[in-house]
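Reviewer comment 2.1 asked that we show a complete input and output for one of the modelled complexes. We chose the zinc ion case, as it is the one discussed in the main text.
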Amino acid sequence: MKTVISGGTIVTASETYRADVLIEGERIVAIGTDLSEGADRVIDATGKLVLPGAIDVHTHMDMPFGGTTSCDDFTSGHVAALHGGTTMHIDFSTQPKGGSLQDGLDTWHAKADGKAVMDYGFHMIVTDARPEVIEELDSMVEQGVTSFKCFLAYPDALMVDDDTLFAVMERASANGGLVMIHAENGQVIDTLVKRAVAAGDTRPGFHYRTRPAALEGESTERAIALAKVADAPVYIVHVTCAEAVDAIARARAKGQKVWGESCTQYFYLTQDDLDRDGFEGAKFVCSPPLRTEADQARLWEAIRRDELEVISTDHCPFNYEGQKTLGRDSFAGIPNGIPGIEERMGLLSEAVWEGHLTAQRWVEVTATNPAKLFGCYPKKGTIAPGSDADIVVWDAEATHTWSKETTHSAIDYTCYEGMETRGVPTHVLSRGELMVEHGQLTDAATPGRGQFVKRRPFEFERPGEFVGPVEARETAHA
Ligand SMILES: [Zn+2]
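Response of the prediction step:
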């Protein structure tokens, strides 16, 4: 099967140019002019952008958390992603407390097997660091799970102490793993939460009041310091505030191997949303919490200045009815997490129109850097001969109004109800197969066709193989 995407403007992280894309089977085989002859199918992209399929490296499908389970599985979550122009994600498998990493990985493979519509990978959340667990990290790398996450938040659930984090970092430094950190000071937050609840301050707005930005900044600094001593690369997930961005920027300026991501919601929503009338604020409870407009400005600046490298979603949907309402009597009982896998690319397309970032930078932070940092570039994350034909044809001028009715996640709300954005995917291809056409899922988009992507070890420090995001950094580091 030969497919040609003709007449569009290709946007990669480094270039913008007009050309046809020839796809044979699952791969891109050529880029050039007038390639349509002999094609079985021609997709006319005249006047549209042709983008690499976006990659969301931070999602939680079918994730048990806070006494309930996130409401998208690997089918509904993938359908939502594809409708929004995302063609791959990396989800978090979790080591069961006291169990092995392999137990966790097997559990998550079983969640995705037979259900995945698009391609996916796994990170591994480490919850304890018995010596045999640390040894097992090598086996994860061999199985293509080359990133490990530690939580400095959520005591009694996922949080690890500094010793555990340090042990994971030291092993990662040797085996090619990238350590990801949820950076918030969980113990002090726990104290603040208990105090608020005891004082009767139980409405959703106390979620952000008990998780101040200073405690994210402190935790980020601590993680970076431990990574320096362990000589390990580190990636701070969902950075929300100036304190944390500044910590990352300082370490990067000194040449330390530190990267950071933020998520769509931190650019578009604020803590005021948590103070909405009644219990409505529960729809906006995620951790770290939404912050201020000043923090949003710092995040945009960080994206422009190359201080943050990725915009993901932390897609972790809980229905308002029946799940968020578990916390009706106290914000401490509201499951932490909000949806966003479908909304991300549309909202960030609007951000390009608004001048927050260029179209190339948009592609870089949503597709190319995720693929490079997480060991699957150039199979994923760009448009080039040999790459998987994960491609999105994007009508940058079409408008879209977000609502529960027009989104595809299993969840019963969107955080962006009524918001209008410019930019809509008209065609979404996964490994050469058309998944979504003008907002309609195709018959080819079947559960079970999605494949697990075995990722390579982190490559920053290997001369000659370097594919990290900021080439100049290598010189600075030397
Ligand atoms: Zn998360």
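Residues 461-478 have pLDDT under 50 and may be disordered. We note this here for comparison with the apo prediction described in Section 3.2.
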